[in-house]
Amino acid sequence: MALFAGIMLAWSPVSVAETKIKVGVYHFPPVASVGPDGKPTGLLGDLLEELEQTHGDISFRVVHTSPKRRFLDFDAKLYDVMIFECPDWDWRDKEVSISRPLLVDEDFYVALRKPGRDLSFFDDLPSHTIAVISGYHYRFAGYETDHSVLEQKFRIEFSDNHSRNLKLIKADRPSVAEVAIVSHSYLQMHLAGHPEDRDTLLISDKPDQRYQLAIIARKDGTPSADEILTLLSPLIKNGRYQRLVEKWGLRLPAGFPTGDEAP
Asked: CA angle, 227 as apex, 221 and 229 as ends, to 5°?
């Protein structure tokens, strides 16, 4: 923890024994979400709890933001770190530090399975009404998030969660949503709880996008992305991080270090 000695002196106005880190969190299940009590859930919730138990001199303050608002809140310095975020989602032009990837996931197209409907249904996506989550980045849309721009190019239904979008698909309301875009990890979690939907839903065999999730922190700020990664190192070395990732149906990047190779 020598790396954090200077941080603790600079950050803690009450006690030099504790470093408080402000973490931005938005609804991104099963990676991260915020419960009714304001506490983080999903993989991130488990990870922050493990980190506080591992490092008694570190605590995390969760700042609830939204997919659309997360950049404004970062610029306003309401939080300093976002864990499990894709750098390609409009972060690279900002003054940030970025860690090595910690997770990988991908998004798939989902429609209602009907007689005569096969995977070619997804070949002409703009011809269908599409349910998306407001503020999320999608490859089919050129990673555009502005509502007005998207509505000019596509027939779009904006939502704030995957569960609602899947319900719209199952309700067979083509004027509202014929295709939803859902992450692989969420789909696996949904199908584990609703196995009957394996015969109800048609899922594309090619992803809309594949992405790598990393730690993003304020450039020249305290802590940096790599300093957060250093905090994570003991959990990587003892295998605890990998078990948490697998618990939530998520995946590590290829070649991710384990054991003595951990950062």
From this structure: 130
CATH of 2-103+211-261, one of 3.40.50.1220, 3.10.350.10, 3.60.15.10, 3.40.190.10: 3.40.190.10
Measured N-to-C along each axis, helices 240-247 and 42-54 cross at an angle, to the nearest 10 degrees, of: 160
CATH topology match: 2-103+211-261 vs 105-209: yes
Phi and psi based region of residue 156 (left: phi greater than 0; alpha: psi -120 to 50; beta: remaining)? beta
- Residue appearing with tokens 């605590």: 59
Pairing status of strand 201-203 against strand 179-183 = unpaired
Query: Which DSSP category does 252 fall into?
Result: P
Q: What does the pLDDT profile of the chain (263 residues) look like in tens digits?
A: 333 333 333 333 434 457 899 999 999 999 999 888 888 999 999 999 999 999 999 999 999 999 999 999 999 999 999 999 999 999 999 999 999 999 999 999 999 999 999 999 999 999 999 999 999 999 999 999 999 999 999 999 999 999 999 999 999 999 999 999 999 999 999 999 999 999 999 999 999 999 999 999 999 888 999 999 999 999 999 999 999 999 999 999 999 987 666 66
Sequence-separated (6 or more) residues with CB below 8 Å from residue 21: 58, 59, 60, 61, 80, 81, 223, 228
* pTM (two decimals): 0.89
- Each domain of the chain, given as residue ranges in start order, spans 2-103+211-261, 105-209
- The distance of Cα 132 from the centroid of its chain, to the nearest Å, equals 15
Does domain 105-209 match CATH 3.40.190.10? yes
